[in-house]
Amino acid sequence: MLTAHRALRLALSRVAEKLYGVDLSVEGIAADQIKLEDILPSIPANALVQLVDGSGDAQGVLVMPSPIVGALVEIQTIGHITEKTPEGRPSTPTDAALARRFSDDVLRAFGELLRDVPGEEWTQGYLTGDAMFDTRPLPLFLHDIPYRRLRAPITLAGDARTGEIDLILPAEAADGRGRDLRQQAADSAEKWQNAIEGRVLDSAVQLTADLARLSLPLSRVRKLEPGHLLSVPIANLRNVRLHALDGAVVASGRLGMANGAKAVMVSRLGPGGPEGGHDGDTPLPPPDAVPLNVPDLPEMPALPDIPPMEMAAPEVTPLDDDEAAEPTDKLPDIPGLADLGIPTDGDTPSMAPTPIAIDLGDTQ
Q1: How far apart are CA 72 and CA 154, in angstroms?
Q2: What DSSP element (H or E) covers 199?
Q3: Considering only CA atoms, which of 123, 117, 109 is closest in space to residue 2?
């Protein structure tokens, strides 16, 4: 019966031959169980640490030593593995990208070989996840459960490169009881975002309805008292602007009544206002400026030329000295007047004074 030890050895050899055409030999695979707190201290310096994601929320670690990673990089960049082993250096994102296909194919082949083997369900469904270049937070990404570790000492291209690849997977097959901490973090971030968004959207926002902005002399402002009236252009009723606390215009509408109270019917969102309304940044006309609806009058037709008029003064015949000296009592009577019954002999009876009311009006 195929075991996990042999399946990993076959997977490593076959993938190296298939991808790069190089020989990969495995000296012997050791297996043990390891606790979460012991994983981090067991990782050698400068090793490439890759998280491996399984079915459900299962997660493990694949550790590749620096000499093996360097060999994979050389094969894909210069076409062969150099005889001299490069000095150890920390792994980079480029190293992780070039080694990812090898890791994925090994994990896939490993699981395929053990798919139908009873008791080896813990090996199924793993693929390479994120690389960790700072391994200190590694325990935060893994569940606190027992793990199985397979340690495979390998040799590439004869003795050109040697190193030990460690595959660490949960000891039991994923049964849905655990939770992927990275998914937990993502879920928590989403829940936090939804919660803060809900709080913000449910919070009260104060809006100020701006009917008009008036410019008045300071002397008049100082005399304002309750009951004084300020004139507002009628056009402003069609463009009441709603301001937020920061002064930004969020909407505009029309002033009216609703259920016996003053109300603003929103007609437009944003800083723009309907035509005919006032602009908050434009000075308003004086309070007593009321627009007049004066109809357009037709043009007057051209008047004809009027010739100048000659006006002569009437002729007056002066009186001679004899006529001017005659007394006025010799003037003739004016015919047609009735007799008023007033004595003409100069003996006019006396009359009692009669009071008269005189309206002098307003003498101020």
Answers
A1: 13
A2: helix 181-202
A3: 117
